[in-house]
Specification:
This protein is of the alpha/beta class and about 500 residues long. The chain has 2 domains: about 15-275 and about 480-495, 3-Layer(aba) Sandwich (Aldehyde Dehydrogenase, Chain A, domain 1), CATH 3.40.605.10; about 280-470, Aldehyde Dehydrogenase, Chain A, domain 2. About 35% of the residues lie in helices and about 20% in strands. The chain has 14 helices and 22 strands. It has helices at about 60-80, 85-100, 100-115, 115-140, 175-190, 205-215, 230-240, 255-265, 290-300, 315-330, 350-365, 405, 420-430, 445-455; strands at about 25-30, 30-35, 40-45, 55-60, 145, 155-160, 165-170, 190-195, 220-225, 245-250, 270-275, 280, 310-315, 370-375, 395, 415-420, 435, 435-440, 460, 475-480, 480, 495-505. Strands 14-15-16-13-12-18-19 form a 7-stranded mixed beta sheet, sandwiched between helices. A 6-stranded mixed beta sheet has the order 9-8-7-10-11-21, sandwiched between helices. It is globular and about 75 Å long. The protein binds NADPH dihydro-nicotinamide-adenine-dinucleotide phosphate (NDP) and glutaric acid (GUA). Glutaric acid binds next to loops. Belongs to the aldehyde dehydrogenase family.
């Protein structure tokens, strides 16, 4: 294994940062910053211009995974014995360091993901909120119970202990916030982590690992392995490793199923935050401005690339035409372009695969009878130069047989469907194999209550397009996965509860 003893900040990209040492291109194994065993690398490309290589990063394999897990394991012995208060203090320092480095972390997120600087800064604050939340939760979340035993000779108690080595498999859409949403509660509980960022977006995770060190964590609490092309091997090595006790994934349902299969031989505890197909239901009595603002937020955040993105927009017939007109007027104002340009409101997508998915969904919908209400006709292909852009688009006449109705588009395409009755809307909304987020716009409390109970998702927004907050339980039902992240429930995902029964007679 080779190491140059630096953070590997050879690129001129590092000079974009106030603190260039946060530009790290090495994996993290204990105290070391290393190249991979294979010596192979992959490129991180700027989504705003595919010719720009932002960094060259180690391509890991099973040996690197094994090293990272060994590092996790040896640190776990010591770290699991720290007190909850010590861990709370450490997380608070990490939160402060994250916020103190907001400009640099946001720059890295813009360069690896392409989102706008405003969105990237918002992401860093969202990421820090999980650290501060779990700093507060650390002590409360470690408390056990005393149970009234039926047998008077017995005393029964529970204690909560860290589950052990945890694998955090991260997506590219909110690379830092999803890192802290997993690493925060894991560290609060006393676990150590092997983190695999998405191949497209490793830089913010690697910088964060440096902040973990600066916060004073023991080496080996957070280890990072990186891969793009070898993700199948690395993912399998993590899932099949007997010393990894828990895997937490945010990613597609396809990958979620694979991880669950691969983790079956060692029966790991899993948290699966997978794909969605969020319906938005706009009732006739909705406040139109509020509905438009919320729909655009839910549709266009991170250029439409979130698992809770509005995917099927159902509008009641009495408000349908007015809603469409207002949506078009507003969407026209979204300037698409380079994330670093302060006038940009919509950045590029992550890869050309993502652009192609939008193109294919629009083409398929048009073939099956949808109408193009706003945006260009999809070309048969896109040029293989420039950034990964798909223009904001509105389709009307969405129906069940279209791909866009059954798969998340993950892009700035708004597909609208007219409905007549509340029952019809509910039926369309629930006609999905996944159930993550849903949104309802109405001023009728009775409708809101019926919809909240009837929609088959893990999260519902009433008159809001934002479901995400560190204090709100985040997670889905059906094929959107299981487990809750954030909130007072998020830490238990990284713990075991042990019951202790003592015979006090004699
Ligand atoms: N819930 C969410 O937040 C996300 C949902 N998606 C959905 O997936 C669609 C396709 O996106 P795409 O990026 O191509 O998705 P993939 O399903 O190929 O990958 C999603 C994530 O899983 C990781 N991954 C892929 N294969 C494995 C594996 N064998 N073991 C472990 N991890 C693995 C990827 O890492 P790597 O990048 O290194 O390949 C990536 O981070 C999107 O359009 C969207 O619908 C995608 C990402 C996030
Ligand atoms: O899975 C995702 O798309 C990232 C989570 C989004 C959020 O927390 O709002």
């Amino acid at each position: 294994m080779s190491s140059n003893g630096t953070n590997g900040n050879t690129s001129s990209e590092a000079s974009r940062l106030k603190d260039p040492s946060l530009f790290s291109t090495k994996i993290v194994i204990g105290s070391q910053r290393l190249d991979s065993h294979s010596g192979k690398t992959f490129d991180v490309v700027y989504p705003g211009d595919r010719k720009v290589i932002v960094a060259t990063i180690p391509e890991c394999n099973t040996q690197d995974v094994n090293d990272a897990v060994s590092s996790c394991l040896s640190t776990f012995k010591e770290f699991s014995q720290t007190t909850a208060r010590q861990r709370s203090d450490l997380l608070r320092k990490l939160n402060d360091l994250t916020l103190a480095n907001i400009d640099d972390l946001a720059t890295l997120i813009v360069r690896e993901n392409g989102k706008t600087r405003a969105e990237a800064e918002a992401e860093v604050k969202y990421a820090a909120s999980f650290l501060s939340w779990f700093a507060n939760m650390a002590e409360v979340g470690c408390q056990g119970e005393t149970i009234a035993a039926a047998n008077p000779s017995m005393r029964i108690q529970t204690i909560r202990q860290p589950i052990g080595v945890v694998a955090c498999l991260l997506p590219w859409n909110l690379p830092l916030a999803m890192a802290t949403r997993k690493i925060g509660p894991a560290l609060a509980a006393g676990c150590t982590c092997i983190v695999k960022p998405a191949g497209e977006t490793p830089l913010s995770t690697l910088a964060f690992a440096e902040l973990v060190k600066r916060a004073g964590y023991p080496d080996g609490c957070v280890n990072v392995v990186t891969t793009l092309d070898n993700v199948a091997e690395v993912g399998k090595a993590i899932c099949e490793h007997k010393h990894v006790r828990k895997v937490s994934l945010t990613g597609s349902t396809r990958v979620g199923k694979l991880i669950a299969q691969q983790s079956a031989s060692t029966l790991k505890k899993l948290s699966m935050e997978l794909g969605g197909n969020s319906p938005v239901i706009v009732m006739n009595d909705a406040t139109i401005d509020k509905a438009i603002t919320g729909v655009l937020l839910a549709k266009l955040r991170t250029s439409g690339q979130t698992c809770v993105a509005a995917n099927r927009i159902l509008v009641q017939s009495g408000i349908h035409d007015k809603f469409l007109e207002a949506l078009k007027e507003k969407i026209k104002t979204y300037k698409q372009g380079d994330g670093e340009d302060s006038s940009t409101m919509l950045g590029p997508l992550i890869t050309d695969r993502a652009v192609e998915k939008c193109r294919a969904h629009v083409a398929d919908a048009l073939e099956k009878g949808a109408e193009l209400y706003y945006g260009p006709q999809p070309p048969s292909s896109f040029p293989d130069e420039g950034g990964f852009f798909y223009p904001p688009t509105i389709l009307t006449g969405l129906s069940d047989d279209m791909q866009i109705a059954t798969e998340e588009t993950f892009g700035p395409v708004a597909a609208i469907r007219k409905f007549e009755t509340e029952e019809e809307a509910l039926e369309i909304a629930n006609n999905s194999d996944v159930g993550l987020g849903a949104y309802v716009y109405t001023n009728d409390l009775r409708v809101a209550a019926r919809m909240s109970a009837g929609i088959e998702t893990g999260m519902i927004g009433i008159n809001t397009g934002m479901l995400s907050a560190c204090e709100a339980p985040f997670g889905g039902v059906k094929e959107s996965g299981y487990g809750k992240e954030g909130s007072i429930h998020g830490m238990a995902e990284y713990q075991i509860m042990k019951s202790i029964t003592t015979d006090v007679s004699g």
